[in-house]
Specification:
By secondary structure, this protein is of the alpha/beta class. The chain has 11 helices and 9 strands. A 7-stranded mixed β-sheet has the order 1-9-8-2-5-3-4, with helices on both faces. 39% of the residues are buried.
Length: 280
């Protein structure tokens, strides 16, 4: 498996995206569960047109096949795939406050590139959950640990403590804000009209450190031409809405800019073990 992924990582990005688009359709056609998850989530979000569904299938396939290249190519080569950065001035403003910086990278576009690009400009600590295929973890660790520029920590209390220390040093941290948290680590909040168990970690870290929170993603450009990085602050809260609802509302706006590149195959609405289902 590792040999095959290293071989794939050598392919040019346009070829990876072309093959990935085809593989996306293959998986969609042979997996009823995968097909059902994409269709159900898109319809629930009001995005269930055949054209949108086809675009999501292609982009999800591209996203899967580009990951080996992002993990295994040299850091500088990966960061150079970002041809344009929109909103970087928000990072520069936050850096002057020296309170650290919380960067949220949802499952939108190529979140692996986002981390690598940020690390090319400032140190960042990112939180990760182990992949379902344990054999992939060494490759993922190699891709997410880039010396002093980028290091990964596990999604547990040890990782939270490491992120707090990074913030108190005035450094940046990266979190996948739409990852479903474990019991006691989230609250139910609306996400595209449905209750989703949403992490409270972002709000707790911001409250404890005073660190500003920014939302970012790397949009996949057509024909393998690389990525466009975009970053901006969260939306202002609408009292009396909860902080987790403000987070989800900010994510919704971001996702609707290029909904075809969101990971609709992810079970965002699952009920984690030990968590009481939402009322109603």
């Amino acid at each position: 498996m590792q040999f095959l992924l290293r071989l794939v990582a050598c392919f040019p990005l346009p070829l990876l995206h072309a093959i990935g688009a085809v593989l996306g359709w293959v998986v969609y056609l042979i997996s009823p569960r995968y097909r059902g998850m994409i269709g159900h989530n898109l319809r629930a979000a009001g995005l269930g047109s055949p054209g949108m569904r086809a675009a999501v299938v292609r982009e999800t396939g591209k996203g899967a096949l580009e990951i080996p290249a992002i993990w295994l190519r040299p850091h500088r080569a990966v960061a150079s795939l970002v041809g344009e950065a929109i909103g970087w001035e928000h990072v520069e403003i936050a850096a002057k406050a020296k309170q650290g910086l919380i960067l949220l990278t949802p499952h939108l576009g190529c979140w692996e590139v986002s981390g690598q690009y940020i690390a090319s400009r400032l140190p960042i600590t990112v939180m990760y959950a182990p992949p379902n295929l344990r054999s992939l973890e060494p490759l993922m660790q190699a891709g997410r640990n880039r010396g002093a520029a980028m290091k990964s920590v596990p999604a547990d209390m040890r990782g939270v403590r490491a992120m707090l220390k990074a913030l108190r040093r005035g450094e940046a941290i990266g979190i996948l804000p739409d990852q479903v948290p474990g019991v006691g680590e989230g609250e139910w909040a609306e996400f595209f009209g449905r209750p989703a168990y949403t992490m409270t970690l972002v709000g707790r870290l911001a409250e404890q450190t005073g660190a500003p929170v920014l939302l970012c993603y790397s949009r996949r450009l057509p024909w393998g031409r690389g990525y466009r990085f975009e970053i901006e602050p969260l939306l202002a809260p609408r009292p009396p809405e909860s902080p987790v609802r403000t987070l989800n509302r900010s994510l919704e706006r971001f996702i609707l800019r290029c909904p075809e590149q969101y990971l609709w195959s992810y079970n965002r609405y699952k009920v984690p073990a030990g968590v009481r289902p939402p009322a109603g």
